[in-house]
Design a protein that fits this description.
Elements (H helix, E strand, L loop, with lengths): L2 H75 E3 L9 E2 L2 H6 L6 H32 L5 H8 L1 H4 L2 H15 L5 H25 L3 H9 L4 H29 L3 H6 L7 H10 L3 H25 L2 H5 L4
Antiparallel strand pairs: 1-2
């Protein structure tokens, strides 16, 4: 009578055993899939980690560089912008019309700035070309000290230098004149002009000049037809650097030129001190555009061989 009940119990045991095996297999499969998932995640993190860090660093640098420029552009076109609004309430060109109006004095100030910068370039190159040739091609004694002497205006703080220059210029009648402002700008422009010009001349292969002299060319002909054309890209780059340095110069013009000489940086300073941030932003953009354009040109002129000879 007990045998019929033994079969159902054995069937129940087999079913339980099968369920346990299925559970073990499912657990093992889930562990394998979790291990594979962790392995894929580790590989993805290992590959994307350096790129992600690099992207974050580049994004931070872009924010530091272009954030102020974006704020400058917003102020240039803002009609109304009040705290605590994060963006202007109204955009327009009203302040652009004020800047370029005859009474705005921006066009005249820009013309004065360009004229002073051009004169500074001419004066700096008149000194830098012969000095650069002598420092770059001739074996001069104390060459390093001479190059270091041109760096002295950059080593000394500008403010006390300009105050003393202004005092001297007032005594000799150069204060408030274009000539006085050009001389002040050239004191810094000569550093760039001489150093880059000497590097440009030093990068020229001396065998070219020797070959020309062996064929009967005079020293002047050799300089005019071989040396100067080969050094022209570096000289052009130095001229652009001096031009931009003079175009953006404020402190020297303020102490020597005010009130008779008004440049665009002085106009920007007066607007910002008066709380007219739209006018100040517009004048800053007017100074920024030629700077960016000329720097793109400089990139094509300054070659690696010239840069390698700077200071040598």
């Amino acid at each position: 009578m007990m045998r019929p009940s033994a079969q159902p119990s054995s069937l129940q045991g087999e079913a339980a055993h099968r369920q346990a095996l299925h559970a073990r297999r499912s657990l093992h499969a889930s562990e394998e899939s979790a291990g594979v998932g962790r392995g894929v995640t580790d590989v993805v993190i290992a590959r994307l980690g350096p790129n992600l860090l690099r992207a974050l660093v580049l994004a931070l640098l872009a924010f530091i560089i272009f954030g102020p420029l974006l704020n400058l552009v917003l102020w240039a076109f803002a009609e109304r912008w009040y705290f605590p609004n994060k963006l202007p309430l109204q955009y327009g060109f009203t302040f652009w019309q004020r800047v370029f109006a005859p009474r705005g004095n921006a066009v005249a100030s820009l013309g004065t700035s360009v004229w002073i910068a051009a004169l500074t370039v001419a004066f700096s190159l008149a000194v830098a070309v012969p000095a650069g040739y002598a420092l770059g091609r001739l074996k001069l004694p104390w060459r390093g000290l001479i190059l270091l002497a041109f760096l002295l205006p950059q080593a000394v703080p500008n403010l006390p230098v300009y105050v003393n220059i202004a005092q001297v210029f007032y005594q000799i009648g150069l204060a408030g004149t274009i000539t006085g402002v050009v001389l002040v700008h050239a004191s810094h422009g000569l550093v760039l002009a001489v150093w880059i010009a000497s590097a440009a001349f030093a990068s020229i292969d001396g065998a070219l000049e020797e070959a020309a002299r062996n064929m009967g060319a005079s020293a002047w002909t050799c300089f005019r037809t071989i040396t100067l054309p080969l050094a022209a890209p570096g000289i052009m780059a130095s001229a652009i650097f001096v031009f931009l340095e003079s175009l953006d110069e404020f402190t020297g013009t303020y102490f020597v030129g005010v009130p008779d000489v008004t440049t665009l940086p002085l106009l920007m300073f007066n607007a910002s001190m008066g709380g007219n941030y739209q006018i100040a932003s517009i004048t800053a953009l007017l100074l920024l555009v030629p700077s960016i354009g000329f720097m793109l040109v400089v990139e094509r002129f300054l070659k690696a061989d010239v840069l390698a000879m700077v200071g040598r």
